[in-house]
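Quick one from the shared queue. A colleague (R.T.) flagged Tetratricopeptide repeat protein as missing a structural entry in our internal table.

Convert sequence to structure tokens.
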Amino acid sequence: MTSLKLLPLCAALVLATGCSQLGVKPAQPAATATQPQPPAVAATPHAAAPAPDAIDPASLPKQPLTPDILFKFLVAEVAGQRGDIALADATYLDLARQTRDPRIARRAAEVAMFAHDQAGALDAARIWAGAEPGSDRARQTLAVLLLGEGRFAEAEPVLRELLKQDTATGFLHLSALMGRVRGSADGVALIERLAADYPDLPEARIAVAQAAATAGDNGKALAALAEAERLRPGWEPAALLHAQLLDRTSHADALAFMQGFLAAHPDARELRLAYARALVNANRLDAARTEFTRLTRDFPGNAEVSFAAGLLSLQMGDAATARDLLAQTLENKPRDPNAVQFYLGQAAEQLKQPDVAATHYARIEGGSYLVPARARQAALLAQAGKLDEAVALLKATRGENTAQNVRLIQAQAEVLREAKRYPAAFAALSDGLKRYPDSADLLYDHAMAAEKLGKLDVLESDLRRVIILRPDDAQAYNALGYTLADRTKRVDEAIKLLDKALALAPEDPFILDSVGWAQYRAGNLARAQDYLERAYKLRPDPEIAAHLGEVMWFRGQRDEAGKLWQSSLQNHPQNEVLLETLRRLKP
């Protein structure tokens, strides 16, 4: 249950002494994700000025501490501690209206925001700002709440006062704030009026741009950014927003703009980082790697940069460079060390260092990389001839949730299947289904294991259950349809299932292959060849080549079939389906 922080006991004791003033600073509730936060518009420092939240005792209302006030105060705090936020909210608002004390009004505003009571929070913030007119925090909170409610006319004089304190910083925070409230023409007009008083301030122009962008007016936003860039050439915040706006309509235009900006301002590190990320999104990996490699020199202690550069190097096959960059990332204290250890393991595997890879995987003890790491450890053990150790490792691992535990069972079956221990793989999946009987993933794998053992009744039962659990699972329809076409005489039923699979995934080459094979089994050779040629064009897989060649063979296109098989066999000399087809048709 959510509760508010109770005031310390000593504070209650101070109240109980009967002083004529409330001599405590109200405690703040724990922050929540939905609680509005005031913009941090800092006051200009001044040697003789009090701290921003300090209250001049002489300005406080002469409010005696009556038993009624003390009682309500304690009721509100105890209610918050016990999770009765509504009671705490109502009681504090009543106290704020009764006392007009800025400390109580501030607490009332905080509790009301915590309770998502926007009207109450606004009422309390008005009292607070009125009772403590010199408080920037009170004005900030009031401005946030007014803007959130779309009360732009009321917010305007409050914002004008705040902007007088630190104009440039104030506009930047105002810009960020307008990005969080719903854009509207009135909101844009408000920012334009505020910015008009500061025609030579680039921060004012970027605030207009942000407001216009939030309202969907890209033209006005880009015009304001052009003015900001004229006033302060090479200013990265304006350039970053400019690139984001261009990216809304054209990734190419955004990339071209960033490239041009970096040519003119090569030391713009933040924009270079954005450019590198955009290159990754555009799948321009060579260029992205170049940028990230430069950024590792510009930001030598930045774990995010070295991690991205390492991943790009790994993806491009440069495992040695990836290893060095990922090791550097670990030294820079990354947010997720497990991810770095996992990809260090991947780099070690590419470098043919299985023992080093296993060491990295073993260092992962939790999180989303736990199961992939244990699966790779098990695969390495199995490749080293230690299959029993591999299975034992996976059995001993405990996932953090059901999804991870299901994946561990699948990993057990995978290593057993790779070792051609089909009965053991089937048994592992059968045991898993006792724990998770409605896992569609386990049911699917169990069906595939059953097919290896000729248990077609089990396969059909499992796949029909998957279809019930996941009615849009194209692969379940495909697997069942293909098996019925290939292993039974229920070809008409198979075609209906495969038509459903094709409707769900019309460009899937394996489904096209299944449809073609079912048409072949039904005697429709021309239609079969059309589907199989489409499938092979999308993916030149050896099993698709085997099926297509067989159809061509029986259509009298034996030379073409032989060339197709020979070409596929060169790339896949051990494929069982292809070899079996050749043995059967070309003895």
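The domain at 365-471 is CATH 1.25.40.10 (Serine Threonine Protein Phosphatase 5, Tetratricopeptide repeat).
The CA atoms of residues 169 and 247 lie 27 Å apart.
Added to the table.
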